[in-house]
């Protein structure tokens, strides 16, 4: 069993090097328990999600005042207990067409050589292996990736 808050805080420390003090990171952890997950795999999922959030904010015209907000909540899905991890970023919203393709392998909206278009595809596959769910949605002047992991 992995302490989720500890994993998320470790991942945040790991990626804050990339934020260059131009992106505020807020945390609202309403779940303080353990999850039966492979630490390294879910850590990599969160790195991919945070990296995409940073890149989305940096690509927007308002990149000087970006926000990433990480929220955790216990929830129920079909009478089963899950923890929901929402990673919101204040970058641009995504078109409906892009939302349909966002978890496909090699799909990318970025034009750098460093990008393979595999980050969210790997995240999707990893979360499915953990019997969880992952989704993407536009939300309140930004964009969110939501991960749901089972608690049993």
Provide a concise account of the structure shown.
This protein has 152 residues and is of the alpha+beta class.
β-sheet strand percentage = 25-35%
User: Tell me, what's the shape?
Assistant: globular
Question: Taking all residues together, what is the mean pLDDT?
Answer: 88
Oligomer: single chain
Order of helices and strands: EHEEHEEHHEE
Major sheet strand order: 2-4-5-7-6
From the alpha-carbon coordinates, what is the Rg to the nearest angstrom? Answer: 15 Å
DSSP strand count: 7
Taking the sheet with the most strands, its summary is:
5 strands, mixed
SS class: alpha+beta
Q: In which range does the helix fraction lie?
A: 25-40%
N- and C-termini, Cα separation? 10 Å
Poorly predicted runs are none
Number of helices: 4
């Amino acid at each position: 069993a992995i302490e989720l808050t500890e994993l998320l805080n470790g991942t945040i420390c790991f990626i804050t090097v990339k934020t260059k003090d131009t992106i505020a990171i807020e945390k609202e952890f309403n779940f303080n328990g353990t999850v039966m997950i492979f630490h390294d795999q879910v850590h990599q999922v969160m790195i991919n999600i945070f990296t995409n959030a940073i890149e989305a904010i940096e690509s927007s015209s308002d990149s000087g005042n970006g926000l990433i907000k990480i929220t955790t909540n216990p929830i129920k899905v079909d009478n089963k207990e899950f923890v929901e991890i929402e990673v919101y970023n204040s970058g641009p919203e995504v078109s409906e067409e892009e939302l349909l393709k966002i978890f496909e392998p090699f799909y990318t909206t970025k034009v750098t050589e460093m990008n393979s278009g595999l980050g969210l595809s790997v995240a999707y596959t990893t979360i499915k292996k953990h019997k969880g769910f992952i989704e993407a949605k536009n939300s309140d002047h930004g964009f969110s990736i939501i991960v749901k992991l089972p608690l049993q």
